[in-house]
Description:
Elements: E1 13-19, E2 25-31, H1 42-51, H2 54-57, E3 66-70, H3 76-83, E4 87-92, H4 97-106, E5 115-120, E6 136-140, H5 149-159, E7 165-171, H6 178-189, E8 193-197, E9 212-219
Parallel strand pairs: 3-4, 3-6, 4-5, 6-7
Antiparallel strand pairs: 1-2, 7-9, 8-9
Helix pairs in contact: 1-3
The structure holds S-adenosylmethionine.
Amino acid sequence: MAVVPDEEDSSNYFVREIEKNDGAVLKIYQCSKGDVGCVVWDAAIVLSKYLETEQFCTSKTWSGKKILELGSGTGVVGIMAASLGANVTVTDLEDLQPLLEMNIRENQDLVSKGSITAKVLKWGEDVNDFLPHPDYILMADCIYYEQSVEPLVETLKLLAAPETCIICCYEQRTVGVNPEVERRFFERLMQDFDSEEIPTERQDPEFNSLDIHILHLRRRLI
Length: 222
Ligand SMILES: C[S@@+](CC[C@H](N)C(=O)[O-])C[C@H]1O[C@@H](n2cnc3c(N)ncnc32)[C@H](O)[C@@H]1O
């Protein structure tokens, strides 16, 4: 089912506002009904605000950089990156494209130097449309589904060159299959990637949480 918020019918959607450090406000539409991708998850807020931290922004890190976001959902992370000057492609399944396009449209005024487009990318499928390799791959709360572990790892391996930095933000969950899914994902990924965990002091001082982790992952040189 495609997630299409009806702007005329406010019972169909609700808006989440995320204030940037420069005072501008991202306005992100979420749907009242739909799959997991149609709302903004906490990990997406933590990652979005991390992109604004001084370590990136004082050196104009994002300007002109090619960024690919996986499992973008509402698109908040990619929209934040584009508003900071990056050239971003947000991706998700076909059903999420109308919501992504709507959120891009609603926030287009904040994207002056960068750019942003939405495309379908299903993990495990062909990635030729997304090459050459991006400078950064962003992912928020994408490690939650047993069947996705292998395809997601394969997609990351195909998309990441040794100089690509994957910024992976995820909420550590302790119930159900989540711990096992997480364990398997990192076991598979660490065969080919090195990982650095970003301590709380290097995250946004307000938007961080002990159970939400940010990792920088880089392809190991053989
Ligand atoms: C928990 S949501 C997180 C959404 C968004 N990143 C956030 O944090 O707000 C997981 C996202 O992964 C997407 N997803 C799940 N399986 C996928 C697959 N096989 N290929 C591409 N995207 C997928 C879902 O559609 C959803 O948008």
